[in-house]
Amino acid sequence: MFDENILDTTISNIIFNYKISFSNKIHTAGNEDFDVIMNLFNITPELKRENRQYWGRELGMCWQRIVTALCQTRCSNFQPAIRIGADEPFDLAVGQYAIDTKYRIGSGDAGTLKKFRENGARIKALGYTPVLLIVRSDNLNAAITACKSGGWDIYHSQAAFAFIHRETGFNLYNYLFLKKGAFSII
User: Domain residues of the chain, as ranges?
Assistant: First the structure.
């Protein structure tokens, strides 16, 4: 036989702890920030919120292709991504840096975080310094912490553009900024 009061207290404590956690979350109508990639296409935060997964994936692929093309053109020590098993743990390499590009890191999924840590270790084992170049600054802290614990050097927002400028000699941020609206979809 069990004591229903103990069970009630236990379950109530679990629910109460979640209540506190949920209450501490910042709930906003949505991020109203623009970024230089969104500005190329005149994508508004409202439009992006309609299908975040789609826009995050597509803007991320655009970012990856821009950075890869720039480094391939401007860096004599450019190397394309390599496969390790079924994975490509980074998008490109420039000298000692194995670079993975991300538009934003928003997943706190345990599998995703584990993969970041594992890929950092794999890249280091190959003799590279793992580098994440992230367009946005509104990244999930748990993901950033997992990446750091995996040995990644993390550059986001202006720091990512500064890294690119240092390695390529090209001011990509200014280039993209001056192209604002040039490829408008609306």
Answer: 35-178
